[in-house]
């Protein structure tokens, strides 16, 4: 009788999970029905590991598809606590910690977020992928708080760990991210050695060609920005030419299936290739404006904004808003320099609308919007 109950429970659970997956993957997805099936499956007696996994799925879906952070937190906390008492659930535990840290961060509970990430990092020493991912996540949190020194130290630890673990691609990503953080922190004297080492490692890395080209784009974008920050406009041209060649190579790939023979511990992509194309347009605009080529700046801005609109038609992404905002700010400056005040104020207003859609963008770009309005007022 007990065996029959166990079999019935298992059949019931599998049926509910199958229905949940069908609702999740249909077009368009029916996330409400998916969540209902997952919640119903929790009423079926199952192994604690399966229960933890179900709570993880629920927490993940609620985090990404709803605004109900409290419910998401509740499920992820259950997944985290259950997974700690069940053997062979390390990956489930680490994923729960990562998502739970995201929830705490969204709720501005930064200390809780850092605590759980630090604990998960300590427990993930033998899981190269998860250890690296959690280090990236903690470093990003410090960057968001403008604690660039702490972020840089974490990225250094990550680079050393990846090197010892044989995750050479991930080591380069850590180094490039450290270089970017140092640039943001204006520690320019420290940027050159980090980027030089990263550049050498990119050239000698013999991994997947598509991933290697993506690393080149990351490296060259930082090189271009580094020269522009130093006011070395003429030094940018060789890097910019190589950057445009690299992005052409990346766009020649037609399928994500090209990611073959990749080390499982190196499964990181720093940016989707469609976003890389927009980024290359953006740095080209920065160079054109600094060099005084206003016509070029306008041309590349228009191309980039068209590309962003196409990508937004497929799906929204916070990075696209950032790119669009930076482009609008620069094209507005360009219009003011060329005496086209009408378009300048329209583009400034558009930039302002994007700022109001995201509190972080509003804080970050508020000084620039005020500067544009001041420049417009002076031109009048």
UniProtKB/TrEMBL annotation:
It is found in: Nucleus, Nucleoplasm. InterPro entries: MAU2 (IPR019440), TPR-like_helical_dom_sf (IPR011990). This is MAU2 chromatid cohesion factor homolog. GO terms for biological process: cell division; chromosome segregation; mitotic sister chromatid cohesion. Its main location: nucleus. GO terms for cellular component: nucleoplasm. Pfam families: Cohesin_load (PF10345). Keywords: Cell cycle, Cell division, Chromosome partition, Mitosis, Nucleus, TPR repeat. Belongs to the SCC4/mau-2 family. Required for association of the cohesin complex with chromatin during interphase. Plays a role in sister chromatid cohesion and normal progression through prometaphase. The lineage of its organism: Eukaryota, Metazoa, Ecdysozoa, Arthropoda, Chelicerata. The keyword Cell cycle applies.
